[in-house]
Amino acid sequence: MKLLITPNNDKHGIEENTIRLCKKLHEFDGVILMTSSDRAVYKDYCDEWDDDCNVMMHKCDAVIAIGGDGTILRSASHAAVFGKPVLGLNLGRLGFMAGLEFSELDLISRLFTREYKIQERMMLDIRVNRNGKCEYRNIALNDAVIARGTTSHIVDLQVRHNNDACLEYRADGLIFCTPTGSTAYSFSAGGPVVDPSVKSIILTPVCPHSMLDRSIIFSSDSYLEIEPKVTRENEVLLTLDGDSMRKIESGSVIEIKRSNMDAKFIIIKQNSFSRTFTGKMHC
After folding, report:
1. According to the model, what pLDDT value does residue 270 have?
2. Is 51 a catalytic residue?
3. Residue 244: beta bridge partners?
4. Using CA atoms, how far apart are residues 141 and 241, in angstroms rounded to an integer?
5. Residue 272: its pLDDT value, please?
6. HSE-up of 197 (CA within 13 Å, CB side)?
7. Most buried among 10, 69, 220, 229, by the most CB within 10 A?
8. Which of 29, 44, 69, 125 is the catalytic position?
9. Sequence-distant (≥ 6) Cβ neighbours of residue 268 within 8 angstroms
10. pTM across the whole model
């Protein structure tokens, strides 16, 4: 079994724990792949290297992401393009997306005995159109956030649902998230927690200056168009999964719908979503 390891080298204890993982995988004759940027640290523990992570994604059977939710999120989004499943090992604080804690490393043997399930998580397809042309397209596993930039002005935004009803917001921004992302920024902004098995798109306003201050849950086959009012004094930014950021130009329309790609997560422990959520949040 070929396994691509993607460690977050900024995490405390990452080197020690990644080496522990590599040794454990070699016990089961696992073949370890890593990108060349990690070679100096893990040269004695990896079997194959390449400068290009895409080459490694093609070669591997699965990805093991080591870090917090951000690390697992980035790896899962990248792996989704290649149809590869991801196992997250938590070295962060909450680790909602992690399949295992490092204290449970012995359970990694189930990868080789096929004692696991693959859980598919929906993603968002986001396009920015201007003057009838698509200027930008990307996917997001957690959320797409349309919000004001560095200025203090609130943003006027129009939202159309399935080319029909038009909602008007004045707010610091709008969060459009998947059920996976409902425990992230949307949750902090007062949005609902949604079980990942319930396919949907959740809209949560950020600091709205209107009576329309509640989240709306749309069906997963919804088609949403968002038109922010951009002026010289009012910068608007589109941020995907808290990472990829793009400035929105005047006259742009942002389209959001379900992606035809799903992120695939390896589930070794059969915990329910409610148990995972209450355990992580210490409810």
Report:
1. 75
2. no
3. 240
4. 7
5. 59
6. 4
7. 69
8. 69
9. 87, 99, 100, 107, 108, 110, 111, 115, 116
10. 0.91
3-state secondary structure at position 116: coil
DSSP 234-251: B-EEEEETTTEEEEEPTT
Give CA–CA dist 218/199, Å, rounded: 9
255, 162 contact by CB (below 8 A):
no
Q: How far apart are CA 73 and CA 140, in angstroms?
A: 9
Residue 184 has a pLDDT of 92
> Are residues 171 and 155 in contact, defined by beta-carbon separation less than 8 angstroms?
yes
At 177, the amino acid letter reads: C
Burial (CB count <10 Å: 0-12, 13-18, 19+), residue 209: middle
User: Sign of torsion, CA 169 175 177 180?
Assistant: negative
* CA–CA gap between residue 216 and residue 103 (Å, rounded): 38
**Contact (CB, 8 A) for 120 and 102:** no
138: β partners: 126
pLDDT for residue 190: 95
